[in-house]
């Protein structure tokens, strides 16, 4: 009943909703259908050191294993420029990262890091090991 996503353990439960939005379109999709390298979206909450999935959705491969874009969203913790953590996943920024406020406006890295601790953030970028190298980091509602 567990899998690893972005280096983080994810537990499924009897309440986890499974959806296959990939071209395979498996009607009775379950954890048994998930393969290493599949692109998945996981929504849920942290309980102890484990992320508990309320939704596990498989999509056509466009991220992680294929070298495409990944996205993490949740409260920012361990915020210390140029890094922060979202749901246990380390996010790092560099001189190419775009920083945005809640209205989508451009802000400085300093403004982002001052406002981010404990706030809902979204980071999009590429996966380097188990770290997201952010192309964009934004404060979210």
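Sequence proposed for the structure above (141 residues):
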């Amino acid at each position: 009943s567990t899998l690893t996503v972005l280096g983080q353990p994810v537990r499924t439960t009897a309440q986890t909703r499974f959806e296959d939005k990939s071209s395979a379109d498996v009607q009775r999709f379950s954890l048994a259908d998930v393969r290493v390298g599949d692109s998945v979206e996981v929504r849920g909450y942290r309980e102890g050191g484990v992320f508990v999935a309320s939704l596990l959705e498989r999509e056509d491969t466009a991220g992680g294993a294929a070298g495409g874009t990944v996205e993490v969203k949740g409260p920012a913790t361990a915020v210390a420029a140029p890094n922060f953590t979202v749901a246990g996943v380390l996010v790092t920024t560099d001189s190419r990262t775009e920083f945005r406020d809640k209205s989508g406006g451009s802000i400085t890295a300093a403004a982002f890091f001052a406002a981010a601790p404990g706030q809902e953030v979204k980071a999009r970028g590429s996966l380097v090991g188990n770290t997201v190298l952010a192309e964009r980091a934004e404060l979210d509602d």
